[in-house]
Amino acid sequence: FRRVLFRSICKEMKYFNKNKIFVSILLVTLFYVAIVLFSDFDKIKTNYQNFDILYFLPILPILFFSMFCRSLVQRNLLKKINICISIRSSFLIFLGGYSMIMTPGGVGLMIKSFLIQKKYKHEISKSIPLVLAERFYDIFAVEVIILFTLFWFFSITSIILAILLGVGLSIVILFIKNKKLNHLFLRIITKLKIIPDDQEHKAFFLDSLQKLFEIRIFIKMSLIITGLVLFEGIIIFLSFQIFSINVEYIESIQIYYSSMLLGALSLLPAGIGAIESLFVFLLSEKNISLDLATSTILFIRFVTIWLLSAIGIIISLKFLSK
Question: Is 68 exposed, middle or buried (0-12, 13-18, 19+ CB in 10 A)?
Answer without folding.
Answer: middle
